[in-house]
TrEMBL record:
Keyword NAD: no
GO molecular function, one term: integrin binding
Signal sequence bounds: 1-15
Protein name, entry field: Peptidase domain-containing protein
A cellular component term, taken from the record's GO annotations: fungal-type cell wall
Domain Putative peptidase: 9-252
Keywords: Signal
InterPro entries in the record: HRXXH, MetalloPept_cat_dom_sf, PRA1-like
Superkingdom: Eukaryota
Organism expressing this protein natively: Podospora australis
Keyword hit for Signal: yes
Amino acid sequence: MRSSIFLSLLAGAAASPLAARQESSTSTSAASVASTSIESTTVSLPTATPLFPIHKSCNSTLSRQLSRAFEETVELATHARDHLLKYGASSPFAKKYFGGNTTVTPLGIFSRVASADRGNMTFRCDDPDKNCATQEGWAGHWRGTNATQETVICDLSFTKRRWLDSLCGLGYTVANSPTNTFWATDLLHRTFHVPQISEDAVHHYAEDFAEVLEMAKTTPEKSAFDSDSLIYFATDVYAYEVAAPGVGCSGDEDDVEE
Ligand SMILES: *[C@@H]1O[C@H](CO)[C@@H](O)[C@H](O)[C@H]1NC(C)=O
Ligand SMILES: *[C@@H]1O[C@H](CO)[C@@H](O)[C@H](O)[C@H]1NC(C)=O
Ligand SMILES: *[C@@H]1O[C@H](CO)[C@@H](O)[C@H](O)[C@H]1NC(C)=O
Ligand SMILES: CC(=O)N[C@H]1CO[C@H](CO)[C@@H](O)[C@@H]1O
């Protein structure tokens, strides 16, 4: 472990003077650090993209795939962030998915996926809660109250998820295909469940694509915090600007299966 300097953060009402203290390089106890602390190897705030931690239960084969999957997740989130930085609420995609409301919330959420500190969150490949073994069709799950910062990726994910460069191919359209078609979209959803990334702010309000569109029109203040709205937005933008420039693969909203 690298030696670290912990800086107390001026947080909320309990503002306190900045005070630096040394943490022994052998101590890895996150619990010994106040939850309002930030870790940094230098005095300035970290700016590089931190890696998503992959648990040792993932063997080399799985770990190599997960590393690439997380790179794509960060790429998708980064692109969504940059699109919002450039166009803000005037983006037609922001209008479509967030109702033209302020985009500062989605901007913050995508920024956190792209570059928030990863804390002690982890993605594991064993099956501690036995959901992979017992729940038909589960390809992974957030561990919830059993371990809020942990996510399990079941073997099934490794046979089902597509790479982002297949976006707009194989019959995929944003409107008519599942949000978990790709590693990047599936993992975006999984990071939204982890409080280290989402600060518990992202939830499921809409049930399907039609509801996502309806919500943007009626209660856009919810859309900005809706897991599926955020995923559809990021995918639609990436399809239009990267996968099939100027064309995209939004799909026909009227064909959406209920
Ligand atoms: C991980 O971090 C969270 C939040 O900072 C803390 O509540 C939890 O105890 C930590 N878990 C471990 C295993 O260190
Ligand atoms: C890693 O685990 C997967 C899934 O359990 C397995 O199919 C694969 O053979 C393992 N790879 C190595 C190098 O052990
Ligand atoms: C938490 O652990 C219990 C006991 O092993 C298990 O029954 C439950 O399904 C787990 N919760 C989740 C969200 O996996
Ligand atoms: C925070 C904010 O701007 N909320 C607005 C989002 O859009 C709806 C509908 O136009 C407004 O009623 C909210 O005030």
